[in-house]
Amino acid sequence: MVLPRGKCLLRPLWGARTIGFAYRAGPLVSTSSHVIKTILVPTSGSDTDKSVFDAAFAMGRSLGAHLSFFHVNLSPVAAAAHAHLEFCQGPELANALEGLLQHEQHRSAQARKHFQAFCGENQVPVHEVPSGTDQISASWLEQTDQAEQRLLFRARHHDLVVVGRRRGGDHLPATLIESLLVHSGRPLLIAPPSPSRSHSGTVVVGWKETAEAARSLAFALPILKQAKNVIVLAVSERGASSGEELADCARQLAWHGIIADFEVVGDGSRPAAIELAEAAARRHAELLVVGGFGHGQLREFIFGGVTRALIEHADLPVFMAH
């Protein structure tokens, strides 16, 4: 069957457990311009730098983006606020502060060392100003104290932020990822311990009829345009099907030149995070795009179980916006 140019063909995915369709669009929209051109890469000087740098490199290389490596060095007094030294006095306090100073100096030296090694190993040029090309580049910035405020400031001035899983050794707030999601207005790429170095293969979009999911999908459009396969998944809740919503979502993606399959997974008997993670694994996905769902006031924001489970336990990079 021959369709007029620009039309879409609905083709059933007969191998799927629930019926879905694939859009095979006509002429694709040009992807020569990218929305994601600056990526903030917080650098801790810890072992998590490796996974964060790998995820940032894969994203930056595919999008021709600039990686802004950013490290916050804490003074002993600032570090003490996170080290529970309230009951230390006299020589004990002085020794504790000296230990914190040495720890922070070592952490800063390691962070810069990791940055230099990354640029050298991957042949990433260091530029402080735009070079006028679409090639990946990097820069380094280090500041002192007010870590959360400085990270939020830098995040708002970039298109994407790449972060790793929580670690206590960097003396940063345990809720830093949630704070960035809620207060920065920017999407996050959360790197697992061993992320893939490529985001140009299969990308799974976890869809739900919410503003958060719509915002994440919009932020992720430059990435989806680079993907070889895009699959939009919805988790059935209480047995309800989201096939109609997914069909319209895929139809809208086709207008952006993105060919997307879609499918409803699960039957409502298991947590949505498990259904999404297993579905992504079955498709060998290299990236999961979801909305950051939660409730409550901004100062006391509580993320739901799905969001928190993906933040803390997902085995693949998770692209998330609130």
Describe this protein's structure:
The chain is α/β, with parallel strands linked by helices. It folds into two domains: 9-30 and 199-321, Rossmann fold (3-Layer(aba) Sandwich); 38-191, 3-Layer(aba) Sandwich (Rossmann fold). The chain is built from nine helices and 14 strands. The chain has a ten-stranded mixed β-sheet, with helices on both faces. Strands 1-2 form a two-stranded antiparallel ribbon. Strands 12-13 form a two-stranded antiparallel sheet. Helix 5 (176-183) links the parallel strand 6 and strand 7 (188-191). Helix 4 runs parallel beside helix 5 and helix 8 (272-282) crosses helix 9. The longest helix has 33 residues, at 90-122. It is globular and about 65 Å long. The two termini are 42 Å apart. Residues 1-34 and 295-302 have low confidence and may be disordered.
| Count of structural domains | 2
**Percentage of β-strand residues:** 15-25%
What ranges have pLDDT less than 50 throughout 5 or more consecutive residues? 1-34, 295-302
Largest sheet: 10 strands, mixed
- What is the fourth-level CATH superfamily of the largest domain? HUPs
Write down the CATH topology of the largest domain.
Answer: Rossmann fold
So how many helices? 9
Provide the structure class.
alpha/beta
Shape by Cα distribution:
globular
Topology:
Elements: E1 9-12, E2 21-24, E3 38-42, H1 48-63, E4 66-73, H2 76-80, H3 90-122, E5 137-144, H4 147-156, E6 160-164, H5 176-183, E7 188-191, E8 202-206, H6 211-226, E9 229-235, H7 243-254, E10 260-265, H8 272-282, E11 287-291, E12 294-295, E13 302-303, H9 305-313, E14 318-321
Helix pairs in contact: 4-5, 8-9
